[in-house]
Amino acid sequence: MNIEINISNVILETERLILRAWEITDLDDLFEYASVNGVGEKAGWEHLKSKDESLEILKMFIDEKKVFAIVLKENQKIIGSIGIKECRQDLDKNLENLLGRELGYVLSKDYWNKGIMTEAVSKVIEYCFKILKLNYLVATYFNYNIESKKVLEKLNFKFYKDIIIETRYNTKEESTLMLLKYN
Question: What is the CATH number of the domain that holds 25?
């Protein structure tokens, strides 16, 4: 079961990061990290090709009110995003009467392998369970994206099932759905 999400007035902080709603002035930072070849592709979308395309995505983030901008405190630069999306419809019956959401995330290539995404996702998990009162979270990674798998395992997500995901550019990718239940 899904619950309505609106993060437009939410600000979360960690030691190195601020997680907040996107603003129209974030366009340059979004384009800077999301236009790098390999960044979007790890999350199932092609890297952004233009500022106009980036503006469309940014407006979608702002309108949907479900995606946090990841801001590095030391320089106030946006280096990624974390979305709290509606769950896939292919979950088992034992979850259908529980409140849950699916997390999706992407990070600037310049900040890979520094523990930043683990730090950011950990804070969003805390928000989802303690503030939103969700019962579970799921997240998916493409099987070739070992870095994403490591983030989820560090945060105690457990294997749920193997799935095939059709990407935005009509490829089918072997993927793994991971589950984290709130105790």
Answer: 3.40.630.30
